[in-house]
Specification:
With about 500 residues, this protein is of the alpha/beta class. Helices cover about 30% and strands about 25% of the residues. It has two domains: about 230 residues, P-loop containing nucleotide triphosphate hydrolases (Rossmann fold, 3-Layer(aba) Sandwich); about 190 residues, P-loop containing nucleotide triphosphate hydrolases (Rossmann fold, 3-Layer(aba) Sandwich). The protein is built from 13 helices and 23 strands. The strands form four sheets. The protein has a nine-stranded mixed sheet with strand order 6-5-7-8-4-9-10-11-12, with helices on both faces. The termini are far apart.
Length: about 500
């Protein structure tokens, strides 16, 4: 406890990521409201708050009017938590008690008058003298009150009692009175709302929003959260301007001299490159060349793959003469296979940040943006989130490569979204026909940070890896999507024979 907010010390929440949103944590000796529909994570957040207190040798109390001690212990067991040392006070039917020796001391809350219920809670708090309390839930007090005025007075009495006894309390509410009930909002020091969304396909999505926090500049807006074994984890919304560091601007090479020449010497650090082209044109392979060259230089790299599993990715790379397994085993390469139906955008950004800040990844490849778009519950915000992510990576000095699959194999190409304005360099790939073969061509359409070739180079992907040819000047119709080569076949890359 070292940060002050008015006369209240800031105490950690015990929830990874939530302290960042709350500017350090909860204000001590205040009442904070955690509200959300059943299943949104209120109880889990409450237990994590108390476990954090136990780790600091504080006295902690969980007051439950809605769940039994047995249910709380079951939740803790699923998360791998040890609740020994935590005081749990329950006002529930005796037959639900986990401890038979305590059954005679349990009283059904519906059999009590409201005033008696509150007095029993206060008496237990007087006995334990906790510094942290979770009250679960206020819905029971609301039902016993049978009126908004009486309900407000009782909650106010609880709040004042805990304030006088220097206790930090979390009041859990399941929004039984509706999300617009303002009785509690006026009394609470902070209001944190949890939401659970059910997409048409895929796992449910949860998010958190801080509605109010007195005297503190908190991080507003929605932030993704997940509930997995170990508890709730929050992924704060990325604000790129808050993450900057100095870096060397030396270009990153692909170890393919002809490709580097096409791009004016390679890809500059702190820039974003878009590789666009039809399916099968070699987008992932060219991006892999930059990542593999970085690994060979002793740098770290991240490859986020939506379209193929890690096994297929490693096998394809090995077929190009790039053995990634040793780098992966050594921790230099982080290869993330992402299922967009199971991963929220916030968690994806969290994984990328962990690779950059925790593992010092200097090259990040996202393959592909079509998969990233499918991971978004609201597609119209893809450009905004992608803009923040690209800006963040640029300010970290990362070489970012975004792969975009265009629809169609030949002819006019269409992109599912336009990210060219976000990209510092654009590498366009196309198929063309020459000498009775289907061939591949690459051209640098844009590079903000310096000159680049305005020509087109053929490249070939075969058992010998990636080969890039000389600049070809006799092309027609490249920008229409139907490039026609009218030059001499002798200038094209020769196909290797089986022995070569």
């Amino acid at each position: 406890m070292s940060v002050l907010s008015g006369d209240a010390v800031i105490v950690p929440t015990g929830v990874p990521g939530l302290d960042d949103i709350l500017a350090g944590g909860y204000a001590a000796n205040r009442a904070h409201l955690i509200e959300g529909q059943p299943g949104s994570g209120k109880t889990t957040i409450g237990i994590q708050f108390l476990l954090e207190g136990l780790r600091s040798s504080e006295r902690c109390l969980y007051i439950t009017l809605s769940e039994s001690k047995r249910e709380l212990l079951a939740v803790a067991e699923r998360h791998g938590w040890d609740l020994s040392g935590l005081e749990i006070y329950e006002l529930i039917p005796p037959e639900l008690s986990l401890d038979p020796s305590n059954q005679q001391t349990l009283i059904h809350s519906s059999e009590l008058e409201l005033g008696e219920t509150v007095r029993m809670v206060l008496a237990e708090a007087e006995r334990v003298k906790p510094t942290r309390v979770v009250f679960d839930s206020l819905s029971e007090i609301r039902l016993l009150s049978q009126g908004s005025l009486r309900y407000r007075r009782q909650v106010l009495a609880l709040k004042n009692f805990f304030l006088l006894h220097n206790t930090t309390v979390l009041l859990l509410d399941d929004l039984a009175a509706g999300p617009d009930d303002l009785n509690l909002h006026r009394l609470a020091h902070a209001i944190i709302r949890l939401e659970q969304l059910a997409p048409i396909y895929g796992v449910e999505r949860r998010r958190v929003r801080v509605i109010k926090m007195r005297g503190t500049h908190f991080r507003g807006g929605y932030h993704d959260l997940i509930i997995r074994r170990g508890g709730v984890q929050v992924f704060p919304r990325l604000v790129a301007q808050e993450h900057q560091r100095a870096f060397d601007s030396e270009p990153a090479s692909s170890a393919l001299p002809e490709l580097d020449a096409l791009l004016g010497g390679g890809l500059d650090r702190g820039t974003t490159t878009l590789i666009a082209g039809p399916s099968g044109s070699g987008k992932s392979s060219l991006a892999l060349a930059f990542a593999y060259a970085a690994l060979k230089r002793g740098e770290h790299a991240l490859f986020v793959n939506f379209d193929e599993t890690r096994h297929v990715f490693f096998r394809r790379a090995a077929g190009l003469g790039m053995d990634l397994q040793p780098f992966h085993d050594a921790g230099a390469l982080v290869a993330e296979h992402v299922d967009p139906a199971e991963l929220s955008p916030g968690e994806l950004v969290g994984r990328i940040r962990n690779a950059v800040e925790g593992h010092d990844a200097r090259v990040v490849v996202i393959d592909s943006l079509s998969g990233y778009m499918n991971a978004m519950p609201e597609e119209q915000f893809l450009l905004l989130q992608m803009h923040e992510l690209a800006t963040y990576l640029n300010q970290q000095g990362v070489v970012s490569i975004l792969i975009l699959a265009q629809s169609g194999m030949v002819g006019q190409m269409h992109s599912p979204l336009d990210l060219t304005y976000l990209s510092d360099a654009v590498l366009m790939l196309r198929f063309f026909e020459a000498g009775g073969r289907i061939r591949r061509a690459a051209s640098a359409i844009k590079k903000r940070t310096g000159p680049h070739e305005s020509t087109i180079r053929e490249f070939m992907i075969d058992a010998g890896g990636i080969r890039v040819g000389e600049a070809l000047t006799t092309f027609r119709g490249v920008l229409t999507g139907v490039p026609a080569y009218e030059g001499d076949d002798q200038t094209l890359i020769r196909q290797r024979d089986a022995a070569g």
